[in-house]
């Protein structure tokens, strides 16, 4: 059986204590690999390797660092099919999704930041006849990158690539639930010739391998993507050590559909934004608010689309919905379906676990699920479910829908569907969301700031924001 290893100081190595954890394929419910159950000793070794590599790495011209990152991007593209199969096996997502979204976006993360470092500039402030002030942005040093299970390689590389581009060395931990492509990435980094110790990947659980990363005094910053509760714990631990923090956390995103929208396009994209990756994308819209005059036609077309979302083996090209990531997560999502019934919701579609035949008989499959008739402020409409469950709610005015859309503790993303440009901009401005898509969803430009307001996070990733995060400004003044 496949046995993953840590990537420390340029080598694939077993965990210091020799312990391994089983890794389950969600589509089959069977163990398909074992992963290091790393602890503080592994993190200490990884951090020491990163500290040793740092002086040479930060001195390397940005162009040379960039060439290595672009090389890694090319290797990801070369191995796209293998990586897509691995991501699907580890996470349960349809292989078609991993092939078209996860892996290409991981490659573009390295390509983008490989070249972005060369375009990164700092400021000068000239005081006529008095002084010249210039800012130098120094790499922070050794940083920690911790990522979740839903878009494993995509989000892992979204942190690692800018950190390396900025001249930092990295100790990274992927989710213990989906470690496979991070392991394959470590093989590609060796092949690309990334110097030893520049990137170190430590596998294991949150408490076992993640906690020592956030506590290690030699790690100067933590870039974390995951749940709001974990983010709060990380902030509580790392802030008193004055570590810089970037926290990308949960969401409960609204889709606002006005009557003047392009209904066909709004329905088509809302199906994707509701159920892509089985609803396990932090940017999925789980609360769909529809202007009352088109509520019934929207509902009819949306439910027809839901009925066509085939739940099946992620390896099968015809499957539109794969497995949820784990049995525990399936149970959590099912508990929210039970809660939606308790809170008075009317089930319009789905609601049941799916049992497939053959190799997937023990997999964690769930029907895409739609409720209506729930109060906008009930728990199902306020708490993050992170699965294929959405609610439909009619609204009568812009003011009303804005109150509901902003009525959760989260503020990550929102979509607006309308042909009225003035309204689109006005509503976007009033939304408490870090990301707003107008007549689209999941459109990506790597230069834009990515992140959430309120309990959805602190700081922004993407573009120059990420390079600023991984560097520390120093102001130098020359008296004239
Ligand atoms: P978790 O918060 O459970 O875990 C995220 C990562 O943190 C995992 O690698 C986990 O390890 C690790 N971790 C857990 N405990 C600790 C600890 N004490 N110290 C250090 N690391 C720790 O999130 P999930 O993996 O369940 O991901 C789902 C969540 O992520 C959702 O809330 C979703 O909204 C959010 N998310 C946010 C995004 C954004 O950009 N804002 C994007 C994608 C997801 P392990 O898995 O091994 O326990």
From TrEMBL:
Protein name, as recorded: Aminomuconate-semialdehyde/2-hydroxymuconate-6-semialdehyde dehydrogenase
Residues annotated as domain Aldehyde dehydrogenase: 19-476
Keywords: NAD, Oxidoreductase
The organism's place on the tree of life at top rank: Bacteria
Active site residues of this protein: 248
InterPro entries for this protein: Ald_DH/histidinol_DH (IPR016161), Ald_DH_C (IPR016163), Ald_DH_CS_CYS (IPR016160), Ald_DH_CS_GLU (IPR029510), Ald_DH_N (IPR016162), Aldehyde_DH_dom (IPR015590)
GO molecular function: aldehyde dehydrogenase [NAD(P)+] activity
Pfam families: Aldedh (PF00171)
Similarity field: Belongs to the aldehyde dehydrogenase family.
PROSITE patterns xrefs: ALDEHYDE_DEHYDR_CYS, ALDEHYDE_DEHYDR_GLU
Taxonomic placement: Bacteria, Pseudomonadati, Bacteroidota, Cytophagia, Cytophagales
């Amino acid at each position: 059986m496949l046995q993953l290893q840590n990537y420390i100081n340029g080598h694939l190595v077993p965990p210091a204590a020799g312990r391994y954890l089983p890794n389950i394929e969600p589509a089959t419910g069977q163990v398909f690999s074992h992963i290091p159950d790393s602890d503080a000793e592994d993190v200490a070794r990884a951090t020491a390797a990163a500290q040793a590599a740092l002086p040479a790495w930060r001195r390397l011209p940005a162009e040379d660092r960039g060439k290595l990152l672009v090389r890694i991007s090319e290797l990801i593209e070369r191995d796209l099919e293998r990586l897509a199969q691995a991501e699907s096996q580890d996470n349960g997502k349809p292989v078609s999704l991993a092939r078209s979204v996860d892996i290409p976006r991981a490659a573009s993360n390295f390509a983008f930041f490989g070249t972005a470092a060369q375009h990164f500039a700092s400021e000068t402030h000239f005081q006529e006849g008095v002084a010249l002030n210039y800012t130098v942005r120094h790499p922070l040093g050794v940083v920690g990158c911790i990522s979740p299970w839903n878009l494993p390689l995509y989000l892992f590389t979204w942190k690692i690539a800018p950190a390396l581009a900025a001249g930092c060395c990295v100790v990274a931990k992927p989710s213990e639930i989906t470690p496979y492509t991070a392991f394959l990435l470590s093989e590609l980094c060796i092949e690309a010739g990334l110097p030893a110790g520049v990137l170190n990947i430590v596998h294991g659980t949150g408490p076992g391998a993640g906690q020592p990363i956030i506590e290690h005094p030699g790690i100067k910053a933590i870039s974390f993507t995951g749940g709001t509760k974990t983010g709060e714990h990380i902030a509580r631990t790392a802030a008193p050590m004055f570590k810089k923090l970037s926290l990308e956390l949960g969401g409960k995103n609204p889709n606002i559909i006005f009557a003047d929208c392009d209904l066909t396009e709004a329905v088509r994209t809302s199906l994707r934004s509701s159920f892509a990756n089985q609803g396990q994308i932090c940017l999925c819209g789980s609360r769909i608010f529809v202007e009352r005059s088109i509520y019934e036609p929207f509902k009819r077309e949306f439910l027809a689309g839901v009925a066509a979302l085939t739940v099946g083996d992620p390896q099968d090209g015809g499957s539109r919905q794969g497995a949820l990531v784990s049995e525990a997560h399936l149970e959590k999502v099912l508990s929210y379906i039970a809660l939606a019934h308790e809170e008075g919701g009317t089930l319009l579609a789905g609601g049941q676990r799916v049992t497939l035949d053959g190799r997937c008989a023990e997999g964690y499959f769930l029907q895409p699920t739609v409720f209506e008739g729930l109060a906008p402020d009930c728990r199902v409409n306020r708490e993050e479910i992170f699965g294929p469950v959405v609610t439909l709610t009619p609204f009568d005015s812009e003011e009303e829908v804005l109150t509901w859309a902003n009525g959760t503790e989260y503020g990550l993303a929102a979509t607006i569907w309308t042909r009225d440009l003035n309204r689109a901009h006005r509503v976007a401005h009033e939304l408490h969301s870090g990301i707003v898509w107008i007549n689209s969803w999941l459109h990506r430009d790597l230069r834009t700031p990515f992140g959430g307001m309120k309990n959805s996070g602190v700081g922004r990733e993407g573009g120059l924001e990420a390079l600023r995060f991984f560097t520390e400004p120093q102001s130098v003044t020359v008296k004239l």
